[in-house]
């Protein structure tokens, strides 16, 4: 069902005024984790100022260590919703538990399924049962074929509003946190009609190359970019090293869109 052979036209995911896929690329930005109302509000205000309409923020954080900040849970989703509605933004947040998929639509516009859960088949099936758009991240070591099959689970369940996001894969290279597989973008666009985004923050894990990687993604045909922004990255409870501060974010956005998204 996700194959181009099945459907020639691009799937366009509609978020009430914001469309993703088949047109102008979209920028999704926001903090790694929702930490407080004030923190999210500062980011939301900056996004609004830049004309950005979709904000991300993690409330359920799948952390490598059990001793690291695990997120504010439902309370975090409430904070995200409140700050977003003040500025008229759409929201994306990760859900990790199939039991939360149904209630997520009360708080957020898009459910993210994280890299670590790309093959959590019960979560994929739950995502297929709702009508909330899903942003599916590529697994840390998933092939493109496995990625598309994971998306197939959701669409086969009846939810056609699925977006794919390349977020880097694990290779031997240590200069970046993961290796951004830029070739995945044109391959996914050829093989599937679903929108394809690129997460430059988690794929590279370093701030200094975000703009060229985002430009490369757009040049390769991506429908959008995800980037992490925090009012004070040094104090961030997760991904402190690679989140942009607000000033850096404005510079990044100006650079990436300098030539009109390079398209
Ligand atoms: C995230 O986007 O917050 C995240 C945890 O990313 P990933 O699942 O790609 O590691
Ligand atoms: Mn992060």
From TrEMBL:
Keywords, ordered alphabetically: Transferase
A single MF term (Gene Ontology): transferase activity
UniProt signal peptide: none
Keyword Transferase appears in the UniProt entry: yes
Gene Ontology process terms (BP): aromatic amino acid family biosynthetic process; chorismate metabolic process
Full protein name: AroA
Taxonomic lineage of the native organism: Bacteria, Bacillati, Bacillota, Bacilli, Bacillales
Section of the entire sequence shown: 95 to 357 of 357
């Amino acid at each position: 069902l996700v194959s181009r052979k099945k459907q020639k036209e691009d799937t366009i995911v509609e978020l009430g005024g914001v469309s993703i896929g088949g047109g102008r690329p979209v920028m999704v930005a926001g903090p790694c984790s929702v930490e407080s109302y004030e923190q999210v509000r500062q980011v939301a205000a900056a996004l609004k100022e830049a004309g950005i309409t979709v904000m991300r923020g993690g409330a359920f954080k799948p952390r490598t260590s059990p001793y690291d900040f695990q997120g504010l849970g439902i309370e975090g989703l409430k904070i995200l919703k409140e700050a977003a509605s003040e500025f008229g933004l759409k929201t994306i947040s990760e859900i990790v538990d199939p039991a939360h998929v149904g209630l997520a639509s009360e708080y957020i516009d898009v459910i993210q399924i994280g890299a670590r859960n790309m093959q959590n088949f019960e979560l994929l099936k739950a995502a297929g049962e709702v009508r909330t758009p899903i942003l599916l991240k590529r697994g840390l070591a998933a092939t493109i074929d496995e990625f598309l099959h994971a998306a197939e689970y959701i669409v086969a369940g009846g939810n056609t509003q699925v977006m794919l996001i390349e977020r880097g894969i694990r290779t031997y290279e240590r200069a970046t946190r993961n290796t951004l597989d830029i070739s995945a973008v044109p391959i996914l666009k050829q093989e599937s009609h679903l929108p394809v985004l690129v997460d430059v923050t988690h794929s590279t894990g370093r701030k200094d190359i975000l703009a060229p990687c985002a430009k490369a993604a757009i040049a390769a045909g991506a429908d959008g970019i995800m980037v992490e922004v925090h009012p004070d990255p040094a104090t961030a409870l997760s991904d402190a090293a690679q989140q942009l501060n607000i000033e850096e974010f404005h510079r990044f956005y100006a650079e990436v869109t300098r030539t009109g998204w390079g398209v």
